[in-house]
Records
---
Amino acid sequence: MTSKMRSVSAIRNGTVIDHIPAGQGLQIMRILEVTNSDKQITIGLNLPSQRLSLKDLIKIENRQLSSEELNQTAVFAPQATINSIQQFKIQKKAQLTLPTYIKDLLACPNKNCITHEEPGITSHFNIVAIGKRVQLICYYCERQFDRDQKILYTY
Ligand SMILES: [Zn+2]
């Protein structure tokens, strides 16, 4: 074992999401719906990182992320690096940018919000970064939630 040895094995084709803040990896897996797919997934939690003190990392075989999925990932890991891998080589590195809004993905934590009452209304949050904190503001009930709040998140 040398220090250069990677803690997670290489993949032939697929996507590597690196530099996820520790603790957000499982949330991102849920958002990308990889937990109930048949794709081969490698996840590393609480790995040592030079850029972050600890990081999570996800490798998904044979899958590329759409721009919408990249935006969704950015809500939880704006500093993540997305590597698109083909034949074991990095083809494309994408830096994420925090989207200004996110629709139809997360449930509003406010139980009285109209998004829970009306079947035709899907959730819509505007996103603002205040320093390192990311806040989600429900478009309908206008309540503000911290991104790291763990309740009622995904549908
Ligand atoms: Zn709401």
Note: The radius of gyration is 17 Å.
---
Amino acid sequence: MLKCDQVVARADALVDGESLSFRERWALRLHLLVCHHCRRYLRQLRMLVTSLRRNEETVDPATVEQVLHRIDREQNSH
Ligand SMILES: [Zn+2]
């Protein structure tokens, strides 16, 4: 079973639709099935990426930093 930090390390690839091996993808799915922290993390990351893509020109980098920090804090608080 993957650990949360391994999932978080892979979350970018998952959200970006990068190619993961079948094994990796399966391991991630399995972890997400049982870990609601990582599910929430992934959902937030997805929302962030989506909104960034939508407003590519208008997003303030400081805002992005802020959101990422908040996600990191929540992720580390369990
Ligand atoms: Zn987890």
Note: The mean pLDDT is 84.
---
Amino acid sequence: VDGILTASSSEDLRSLGSRATARLGLARHVVADGRQVLETARRLRPRVVIIDVAMPNTDGYSLCREIKADPALATCRVMLVLSGLVTRDEVERFAECRCDDVVVMPAIGEEFHLHLADLLGVARRRTRRIAVQLAARLGRHPETRPGLVENLSVHGARVRLESPLTDVEALRVSLDLPPPAGPLQLDAGVVWVRDDGKLLGLEFRGLTPTTHEQLANLAVWEIVEDDGVQRVIMEGDFDEYTDFAPLGGRLRGRVEFDAEGVRYINSAGTHRWVHFLRELHAVTECSFSRCSVAFTSQAAMVPEVLGTGRVSSVVAPYHCERCGRDEERLLQTQALVRDRQAFQIPSFGCPGCGGSLVFDELPNSYLSFLPRM
Ligand SMILES: [Zn+2]
């Protein structure tokens, strides 16, 4: 079964889980009795088991440990769900039971969905559907290939093609932008090729200031209206070419910035961003979710990067000493315990070797913006 097993007797968690799994197109099973969890997991082999630690008559940590100790369930990921304030003792138990993720309730649907998508290793949201044409010369013959852009920055793009293109080093890219911009024509080099020539990594070459600016604006944001909240998905680099002004005019009410796609910020970009936040007069409430390592590091140095906004989650770098694996994990700020002097960051089980994934930054520096909030 390609599905999710939820072990909970709480109605809130069940309904959150059901919306999230429906969006991911997965089958879902619920058990309300902790004694049935292991048996059901062994029978169904779900991809994710969600364990409500508050479930009566059950020790969620022991359940997690048992799942993790069962070789037949080796690929099964475990999410622990807690309520209210996390204690120091609980953070220690996360590492000890080798869970893969922790979510603290109350969590909003979007947050829950993102955690689940992360565990499943699926794209968190649909990729932006910018159509592209690649034109190349193969020997003496000009060839064109239609495709879709999967990832875009001012430096380059990842492009998925309908039919393969191989043995090409340089080509002409035509990005199909909506009017009035029209198609954007660029020269690019092929940096890597995967999937037998159907997935290409391109590096743009010879950009003019105009094409650079067009790309920067294209790469930077997308607004998704979501239940009374404007969710702004930020993408790409913040630098001297980034112009936030057209975005500012469109934002009002409650706004959530999803900053996972912010890859690089320089000082000019920081300056522009801070100025942009100050001018958001029609915005009543502002928050930041999934702050990327680049965004979080910048916010730690320049607190104005967050304006008056609250941070709900950050992407945190993790490292396993034993096998050298590096991973990024999404951490809810409400899942972090602050103990007078220091943050206590949960560790997780390493999916590679069974060791421990440990937070790979200095907690007090990386999260220095939190105590103010
Ligand atoms: Zn490892």
Note: The CA atoms of residues 117 and 124 lie 6 Å apart.
---
Amino acid sequence: MIRKPLALVIAISLFAAASVAQAQWRDILNKVDANKDKLKKGAKVATAATHEFSEEEETDIGRIVAARILATYPLSSSEKLQKYVTLVGNTVAAYSPRPALDWHFSVLDSTVVNAFSTPGGYIFVTTGALTEMHSEAELAAVLGHEIAHTTQKHILAEIKRNNVTAAGLDLAQSTASSASWLNDDMARKIGQTAYEKLFTTGLSRQDELEADRLGLGFATDAGYRASAVVGFLESLGKLSREGNGSVRQFTATHPSADDRIAALRPAVSRAERGELLAERWDEWTR
Ligand SMILES: [Zn+2]
């Protein structure tokens, strides 16, 4: 992969980027509604448990999950923050195994400290989480973790596991093939499964630690000092021990900060290289 100096690439992009988060999301959510209108038959995905979702299907699922997330927390109205997180996220995603996926990065306005990802590459981080960070490198590592959940299809695997019954019913009831593979019932079930995993029960410990390890790698490859994420995890661990309500959901859905730091140790012990970019962080998040 071609390496340009990372700091330079982003500095240029910050001025070139023109996407407006609110308008972008209006388009994405309109597609969810448009899809629902034509959703009737589910024959194509009847064997959801073993079905390999196409990228298009994965994106359809991602939009449904994103709609659930956006029904829970509003988008931040700060265009500056949206732009910054988008550029850092796209930089890290370029070093993931799926650089060509249509990634979307958004900031949610909530004091709850968390970050979320969906199939198809919709990634969210809360303003509460940003408050606990002190450098662009920490943000890059956190986004890298979420990117890894998408590239490893962790949520998609849970959706497959939980949609066997609904898909079986669809097969029995369907009469013809249709390009539109999602019906209302499946869409609802997908949204519910993802919501539970993201907000209540969490993914498996194994998935979380894999996302930590891979995400750290993507951010490091992109040129960041991703080991800085240890500082972020330590802050969250401290808030959790203090019983701070802002990390309750995070604590319930992730392995403990100490466990995650311990698991990351082999990777971070040799990670003094890379850019921290604390000054640029201050400039863009003030
Ligand atoms: Zn995670």
Note: Confidence is low (pLDDT under 50) at residues 15-19, 38-47, 171-179.
